[in-house]
């Protein structure tokens, strides 16, 4: 009998024999008269109890670790000898008065910032500069070098690239992991002092939201709605593709919505699956086939234009929305736009398109739009596109009835009518997310949602809103790092043909002298050759390609952009990029592809400040933690390179980061922005002004003629001629020689003032265009590339999960153990003790720690899969391993995987489970944005 | 019964299943990554897509009024504090018998492994003695809320004396979807020591 068996054998083991056994087993404490066993005493004698431990003696520092989630919440750190011992969040008063200026909740952080001890202190952290001595991507080729060698070699090579190709060949690639802003500011300052670099526009997150809002509402950034707190004034809330509770769209947004719901405001979620947000706060979930949102909105508009026509406020619509109805004699609210130059020809309006071949009383003609649309792609040469000559249905002559929409989206027609009625009859707020724009036709639904909000009068009044809160409330202290980019102004004449534009007076955007952020790979692969993989007019016009990339605090190169395997093959070619430099905390997939990998400081190891999305506060990020190894700040790194190039003194101006922040804060105090000193700010860790509740577009709603929007019409634009012209100005030949418009219709533009009958690739109105690898509820998707017959019967759909921000924090064990799995389906993580061999680099990821993929029970049964099974997900672009989670939260035929896991190949398989090993690099039609993260067909097998 | 009983409150409607409380607990109590977790999240899906409801539940030790663990432990390593009803394990006394693990209806007793607990403390009798929620008694002593409760971005958790919680949430109930039977051990057998009377109140998901 083992001691354990003896102990459990209570009938035969007396207390006395137990005590003997216990001391044999090494028990040190005296035991007597205890409870247990016979269910006797519950309380122990005094000397058997445990002392309440004293909370460790540490300094409590208020700060934050801001990265690119929307929260940027408050944290408090128990710091001892420069080391974080404990992390808690805002523990001040939780003052909840949503919708009033008294609202001041605790800025409670989410699981990501709670997990940071396992981020700060990992032995696989990069601690000294590494240089690739082998082929790019070879983990064994990295050797440790000194900072002196790193600065000298990088500086020398940088100079030679500039001397040979010009500053235009430098690129500071999109990177978002450091929301103190130092990483981007440091590189841009260096580059701009050396002559500039090739700039990009928009971002990876919201390119369609950015682009469309620029042109259709004259916004500087994204579609703009009321303050978050105004949600309490809504009679109904629509959460459109919105998973803000999980992704954290602004600190406390989930809490705000929860309070609104508890006040009885009904919430409808429109999503493709039961997200954490939908599962938690939606009273009703309307599930939709991925990438078909535009069809749903068109169906709603058709219902409004027919059944509810009597209730539409036509004169209001006409006063606020350009081109919803035909308007051949339209005049602008802006006197600078000449009469007759910005009109809506008969049959060309959005409502005409919605009605198809059926006449509408408000319009001059039935729809002029054809039934199909082509692709503006390479039709010959080595870069010939498989979409060349293919045509997708746009159903220009078909009425977009709720039944038409239902077949595509899978949303019942009655539900489509009901939602349209609610929007028309109630004060509604639409909170949008961005998953609905992650496909090849990303712009359409974003645009249509704005149209829908105007047609149903859900903007500019309390409780009536679509979009995100304006971002301009508060801002962090200026760091004085800005130097203008000398390259920008030289690009306008190259990248833009302004003669295509009726007017350039209303730009809030910079399409004219930048490349779309997503097209850097094309600029690297084809820039300077007159070619573009995607037939992008601006890439073709580039006089020189990208030759040097600095990637500081980002993972776009070989993880967060479409088609990682394609990216890697281009990056590996040293005749394309001659210098690739990453500054990072860990050996990411992008770092792995670089010539130099430099260890950078984490947030809290350098001073900083940050604002969250929808900025209601400024957070301090004091640099109080001990910096490990030879880690340096991005500022010091770039200053080191600048020194080699003889501009070290100009670079720093003799200032430290702290000096710069203090000066920026002081300037803010002088300007009346901040009402506390820099020292107080740092002590409090947060600055919270009293914020008004903004009703966006209120003045425009009430008196549009005197408060016009920053668009050529002065209104929201359902017909955005200038957005189409801008596409043409970017050197795209937009005339599709395939055919002409219907009903002898014409579309005008600056170069064709009398109108052209030609079909186009980009029209002035939003439509429903099937995503290239999409699917329709009724199986009618055109599948132009034959993905279904090629065996790729499943759609891969990604989301922004709780346990990372993009690819940031992917290796944090406190997070991983909650969702990653081993080959047997047990929780798995890379232990913090994992470390590189001396002077070497670690692999990006290890086989055996897999990313979960959500599979519906119906598909799981068909495929013979159970939760915890390892699967191979693949297509002709790549292969990944993942671990199955069978769940009722997802529809059949769609697999869901979190975006951002770290690509790491063993043989041909990415064991890290990066979704972008499978996604496409094709840019979207109009804004050339994003990865096609929800527009991706795959197959899945047990592995 | 103890003189006073501290208790948790959990609003199942508010919980989104984010693990902030789980990690806040691990961080505060320095429980390293690995199988031991003093607060755990589970979920139950009811219905089929798209008409599916998700019932999240986070649970730690419920600091029962009548703890099954203390009754089960043959070495008396677990005890209940008179002053606040908190159930505490004396890790020095634990012999790794794991009777508590069988007895506790809620899976509260936790055991580390060599990854999470690489170093055995000198005072411990075994390599990985039982560990579990202390209701953050060190924080309570300083007037702070338990780490988990103070962490929840959704304000799904609350904490106080059982009387105060019952008064603050008059419609609170004593069980919720996913919550185990309070009088059955981990194997589903009726506990000889009687109903545990867990110190937790709920708002069930509507
Ligand atoms: S922190 Fe709150 S919302 Fe998140 S799992 Fe815990 S109880 Fe639920
Ligand atoms: S929950 Fe389990 S471990 Fe906690 S007191 Fe009750 S029986 Fe003991
Ligand atoms: S009360 Fe403290 S120890 Fe218990 S689960 Fe919450 S955080 Fe963990």
List the helices and strands and how they pair.
The complex is a heterodimer of chains A (943) and B (206).
Chain A: H1 3-8, H2 15-24, E1 59-63, E2 75-80, E3 83-89, H3 111-114, H4 117-120, E4 130-132, E5 142-144, H5 147-165, E6 170-172, H6 182-193, E7 200-201, H7 207-216, E8 236-240, H8 244-247, H9 253-262, E9 267-271, H10 276-281, E10 284-287, H11 293-305, H12 314-320, E11 321-322, H13 350-355, E12 372-374, E13 391-393, H14 402-409, H15 413-425, E14 428-432, H16 443-455, E15 465-466, H17 486-495, E16 515-516, H18 520-526, H19 537-541, E17 548-552, H20 556-560, H21 564-571, E18 579-584, H22 589-592, E19 596-599, E20 608-611, E21 618-621, H23 634-644, H24 648-652, H25 657-670, H26 678-684, E22 686-687, H27 698-702, E23 716-717, H28 721-729, E24 735-740, E25 747-749, E26 752-756, E27 758-760, E28 794-799, H29 813-816, E29 852-855, H30 857-863, E30 870-875, E31 878-886, E32 894-898, E33 905-906, E34 909-910, E35 937-942
Chain B: E1 6-11, H1 20-28, E2 40-48, E3 51-59, H2 68-72, E4 78-80, E5 87-89, H3 99-103, H4 137-141, H5 147-151, E6 157-161, H6 162-168, E7 200-203
Parallel strand pairs in B: 1-7
Antiparallel strand pairs in B: 1-6, 2-3, 4-5
One iron/sulfur cluster binds at residues 15-21, 41, 56, 58, 151-152, 154, 156-157 of chain B.
Walk me through what this model shows:
The complex is a heterodimer of chains A (943) and B (206). With 943 residues, chain A is of the alpha/beta class. Chain A has 5 domains: 3-40, no CATH class; 59-120; 130-208 and 499-601 and 612-687, Rossmann fold, CATH 3.40.50.740; 294-414 and 730-769, no CATH class; 794-942, Barwin-like endoglucanases (Beta Barrel), CATH 2.40.40. In chain A, helix 11 crosses helix 15 (413-425), helix 11 (293-305) packs parallel to helix 16 and helix 14 (402-409) crosses helix 15. Chain A is globular and about 80 Å long. The two termini of chain A are 43 Å apart. In chain B, strand 4 and strand 5 form a beta hairpin. The longest helix of chain B is centred in the N-terminal third of the chain and has 9 residues, at 20-28. Chain B is α+β, with helices and mostly antiparallel strands and 206 residues long. Chain B has 6 helices and 7 strands. Chains A and B meet through helix 1, strand 3, helix 9, helix 10 and helix 29 of A and helix 1, strand 2, strand 3, helix 2 and strand 4 of B. One iron/sulfur cluster (SF4) is lined by residues 24-25, 28-29, 38-39, 60, 133-136, 146-148 of chain B. Residues 61-64, 67-69, 87, 104, 106, 108-109, 132, 196, 198 of chain B line the site of one iron/sulfur cluster.
């Amino acid at each position: 009998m083992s001691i354990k068996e003896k102990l459990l054998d209570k009938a035969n083991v007396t207390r006395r024999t137990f005590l003997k056994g216990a001391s044999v087993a090494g028990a040190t404490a005296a035991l007597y008269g205890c409870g247990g066993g016979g269910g006797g005493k519950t309380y122990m004698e005094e000397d058997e109890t445990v002392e309440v431990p004293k909370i460790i003696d540490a300094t409590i520092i208020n700060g934050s670790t801001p990265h690119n989630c929307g929260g940027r919440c408050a944290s408090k750190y128990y710091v001892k000898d420069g080391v974080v011992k404990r992390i808690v969040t805002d523990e001040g008063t939780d003052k909840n008065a949503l919708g009033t200026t008294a609202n001041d909740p605790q800025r409670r952080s989410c699981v990501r910032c709670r997990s940071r001890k396992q981020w700060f202190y990992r032995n696989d952290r990069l601690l000294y500069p590494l240089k690739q001595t082998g082929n790019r991507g070879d983990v064994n080729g990295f050797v440790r070098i000194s900072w002196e060698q790193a600065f000298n070699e990088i500086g020398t090579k940088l100079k030679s690239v500039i001397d040979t190709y010009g500053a235009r060949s430098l690129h500071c690639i999109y990177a978002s992991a450091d929301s103190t802003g130092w990483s981007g500011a440091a590189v841009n300052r260096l580059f701009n002092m050396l002559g500039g670099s090739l700039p990009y526009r928009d971002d990876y997150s919201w390119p369609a939201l950015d682009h469309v809002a620029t042109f259709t509402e004259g916004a500087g950034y994204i579609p703009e709605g009321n303050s978050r707190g105004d949600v309490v004034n809504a009679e109904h809330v629509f959460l459109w593709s919105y998973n803000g509770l999980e992704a954290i769209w602004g600190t406390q947004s989930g809490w705000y919505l929860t309070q609104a719901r508890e006040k009885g405001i009904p919430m409808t979620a429109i999503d493709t699956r039961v997200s954490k947000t939908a599962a938690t706060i939606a009273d009703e979930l309307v599930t939709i086939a991925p990438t078909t949102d535009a069809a749903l909105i068109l169906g709603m508009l058709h219902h409004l234009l027919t059944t509810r026509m009597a209730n539409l406020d036509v004169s209001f619509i006409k006063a606020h929305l350009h081109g919803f109805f035909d308007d051949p004699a339209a005049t602008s609210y802006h006197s600078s736009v000449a009469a007759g130059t910005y009109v809506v020809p008969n049959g060309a309006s959005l409502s005409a398109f919605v009605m198809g071949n059926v006449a509408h009383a408000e319009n001059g003609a039935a729809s002029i739009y054809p039934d199909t649309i082509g692709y503006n792609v390479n039709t010959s040469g080595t870069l010939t596109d498989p979409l060349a000559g293919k045509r997708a249905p746009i159903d220009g002559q078909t009425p977009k009835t709720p039944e038409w929409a239902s077949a595509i989206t899978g949303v019942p027609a009655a539900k489509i009518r009901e939602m349209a009625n609610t929007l028309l009859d109630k004060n509604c707020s639409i909170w949008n997310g961005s998953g609905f724009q992650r496909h090849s036709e990303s712009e359409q639904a974003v645009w249509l949602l704005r149209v829908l909000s105007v047609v149903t009068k859900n903007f500019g009044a309390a409780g009536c809103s679509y979009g995100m809160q304006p971002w301009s409330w508060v801002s962090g202290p200026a760091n004085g790092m800005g130097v203008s980019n000398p390259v920008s102004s030289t690009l306008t004449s190259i990248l833009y043909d302004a003669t295509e534009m009726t007017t350039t007076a209303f730009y809030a955007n910079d399409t004219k002298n930048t490349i779309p952020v997503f097209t850097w790979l094309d600029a690297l692969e084809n820039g300077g050759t007159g070619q573009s993989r995607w037939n992008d007019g601006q890439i073709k016009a580039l006089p020189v390609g990208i030759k040097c990339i600095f990637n500081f605090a980002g993972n776009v190169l070989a993880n967060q952009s479409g088609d990682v395997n394609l990216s890697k093959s281009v990056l590996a070619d040293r005749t394309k990029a001659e210098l690739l430099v990453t500054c990072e905390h860990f050996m990411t997939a992008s770092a792995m592809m670089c010539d130099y990998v430099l260890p950078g400081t984490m947030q809290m190891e350098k001073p900083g400040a940050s604002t969250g999305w929808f900025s209601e506060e400024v957070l301090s990020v004091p640099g109080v933690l001990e910096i490990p190894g030879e880690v340096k700040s991005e500022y010091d790194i770039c200053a080191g390179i600048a020194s080699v190039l003889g501009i070290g003194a100009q670079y720093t101006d003799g200032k430290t980061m702290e000096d710069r922040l203090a000066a920026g804060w002081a300037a803010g105090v002088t300007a009346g922005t901040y009402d506390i000193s820099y020292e107080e700010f740092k002590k409090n860790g947060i600055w919270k002004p009293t914020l008004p509740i903004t009703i966006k577009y209120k003045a425009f709603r009430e008196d549009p003629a005197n408060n016009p929007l920053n668009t050529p019409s002065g209104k929201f634009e359902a017909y955005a001629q200038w957005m189409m012209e801008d596409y043409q100005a970017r050197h795209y030949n937009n005339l599709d020689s395939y055919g002409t418009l219907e009903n002898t219709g014409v579309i005008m533009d600056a170069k064709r003032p009398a109108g052209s009958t030609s079909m186009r690739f980009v029209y002035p109105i939003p439509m429903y265009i099937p995503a290239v690898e999409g699917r329709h509820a009724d199986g009618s998707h055109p599948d132009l590339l034959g993905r279904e017959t090629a065996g790729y019967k499943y759609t891969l759909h990604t989301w922004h999960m709780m346990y990372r921000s993009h690819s940031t924090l992917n290796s944090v064990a406190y997070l991983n153990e909650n969702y990653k799995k081993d080959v047997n389906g047990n929780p798995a993580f890379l232990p913090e003790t994992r470390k590189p061999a001396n002077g070497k680099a670690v692999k990006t990821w290890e086989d055996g720690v897999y990313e979960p993929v959500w599979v519906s029970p119906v598909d799981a049964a068909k495929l013979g899969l159970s939760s915890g099974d390892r699967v191979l997900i693949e297509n002709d672009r790549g292969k990944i391993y993942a671990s199955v989670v069978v769940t009722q939260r997802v529809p059949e035929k769609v697999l869901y995987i979190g975006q951002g896991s770290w690509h790491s190949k063993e043989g041909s398989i990415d064991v890290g489970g990066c979704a972008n090993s499978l996604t496409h690099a094709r840019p979207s039609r109009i804004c050339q944005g994003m990865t096609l993260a929800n527009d991706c067909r795959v197959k899945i097998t047990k592995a | 019964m103890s003189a006073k009983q501290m208790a948790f409150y959990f609003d199942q409607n508010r919980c989104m299943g984010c693990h902030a409380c789980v990690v806040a607990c691990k961080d505060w109590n320095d429980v390293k990554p690995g199988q031991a977790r003093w607060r755990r999240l589970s979920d139950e899906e009811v219905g089929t897509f798209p008409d599916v409801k998700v019932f999240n539940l986070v649970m730690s030790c419920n600091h029962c009024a009548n703890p099954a663990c203390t009754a089960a432990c043959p070495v008396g390593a677990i005890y209940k504090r008179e002053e606040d009803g908190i159930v505490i394990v004396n890790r020095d006394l634990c012999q790794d018998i794991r009777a508590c693990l069988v007895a506790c209806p809620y899976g509260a007793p936790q055991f580390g492994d060599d990854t999470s607990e690489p170093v055995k403390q000198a005072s411990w009798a075994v390599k990985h003695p039982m560990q579990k929620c202390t209701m953050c008694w060190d924080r309570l002593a300083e007037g702070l809320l338990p780490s988990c409760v103070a962490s929840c971005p959704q304000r799904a958790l609350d904490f106080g004396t059982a009387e105060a919680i019952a008064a603050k949430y008059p419609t609170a109930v004593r069980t919720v979807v996913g919550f185990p039977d309070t009088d059955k051990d981990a194997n589903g057998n009726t506990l000889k020591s009687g109903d545990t009377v867990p110190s937790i109140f709920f708002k069930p998901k509507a």
